[in-house]
Design a protein that fits this description.
The chain contains 2 helices and 6 strands, in the order ββββαββα. With 152 residues, it is mainly beta. The protein has 2 domains: 1-103, OB fold (Dihydrolipoamide Acetyltransferase, E2P); 104-152, no CATH class.
Amino acid sequence: MNKVLLIGRLTGKPELRYTNSNLPFTRFSVAVNRNFTNNQGQREADFINVIVWRKQAENVCNYLDKGSRVSVEGRIQTGSFDDKDGNKRYTVEVAADSVEFLDTRAESQARTQNQGPTPYDYQGKETNTVDVDSNPFAEYGEEITIDDNFLE
């Protein structure tokens, strides 16, 4: 069985690319903390390469940025190629089956606007900083009802 689950932060802004057959994909690196500290008492991290395909790649590029917290589920994929000097190089990456966004909307907005940490009120509760005009997923306060027979 080849199954991988990672939780970490993106090390850079993902960029959308396309194959010759116009299939969208993106590659990014996730920094994952180790469960132990080194001799100096510092926690180290592993930097794991991930590849994502199709619509999920488009979503990752549209909604994530450097520092975004994600959960990646997928499988390890290996490959090889010859570099420009003719040396054989080997690659290891996680081919993502799913990427889950773990930041709250306020954390994402604060990061993209370079406002620092997420705003909190004096009781430690997250404040509402969502701009409904620029966020199509913001709640408008109206309940949506879908009939059970809709899919039939």
